[in-house]
Amino acid sequence: RFFGYMCLFGGSMLLLVVADNLLLLFVGWELMGFCSYSLIGFWYARNYPEHQEIARIPPRSAAVKAFMTTRVADVIMLLGIVFFWFAFGTLNFADAFTAERIAAVVNVIGAGGLGIMTLLLFTGTVGKSAQFPLHVWLPDAMEGPTPVSAIIHAAAMVSAGIYLLLRIFPLIAVSIEGTPWAGLVIAGIGAFTAIMAA
Asked: Measured between alpha carbons, how far is 174 from 109 in angstroms, rounded to an integer?
């Protein structure tokens, strides 16, 4: 079961990376979330005594906490994908991120609308990369087996959020140019998370 989940996670990450559209990327994104949930709660029967020096929650509770926290972000990201589809008429990156298509979308929804779309998609990154204020799941995620903590939550899953930002960077760059507050929100959350985590 453990190695099945690990292989499914690896396949989901590859699906996310090779996806040429937002819908397929989102399928890989959600499969990664399911594998993370399953692997954090892998030792589902483990319990801890109530009175102990360091308070810990059992793995099954940590898995539910991680799943629910990241689902909040993913629902907001899904709204961003729907907004993207209504604005661009496609979810394909190559078709959407042309100068003509982006200029046409800016003329219709304005730079503010593009900034809102960017922040909706960015919220998925906030959840997956455990950034403030959706960072609360990551410390408890260490209840999973050590390879899960080392491979998934220290490397792959957190990198998926950064990968999404890079994948939609043309959208981010244009929205920052038109509405500087979108860039300030992204940079502010990233900087505060880095300082708080340090």
From this structure: 13
Question: How many other β-carbons are positioned within 10 Å of the β-carbon of residue 130?
Answer: 23
Q: Is the pLDDT of residue 53 over 90?
A: no
Single-letter residue type at 113? G
- Are 84 and 109 contacting, i.e. CB atoms less than 8 angstroms apart? no
* pLDDT at position 147 over 80: yes
Say how far apart CA 179 and CA 177 lie, in whole Å: 6
Rounded to two decimals, the pTM is 0.90
Is 97 strand, coil or helix?
A: coil
How much is the average pLDDT of 31-49?
A: 89
Cβ(48)–Cβ(33) below 8 Å: no
**47's torsion region: left (phi>0), alpha (psi -120 to 50) or beta?**
beta
Q: Which residues lie closer than 8 Å to 70 by C-beta, 6 or more apart?
A: 33, 36, 127, 128, 134, 137
Residues 6+ apart with CB under 8 A from 7: none
**Which letter does DSSP use for residue 55 in this model?**
-
CA-wise closest residue to 128 among 169, 156, 167? 156
The closest alpha carbon to 68, from 127, 9, 125, belongs to 127
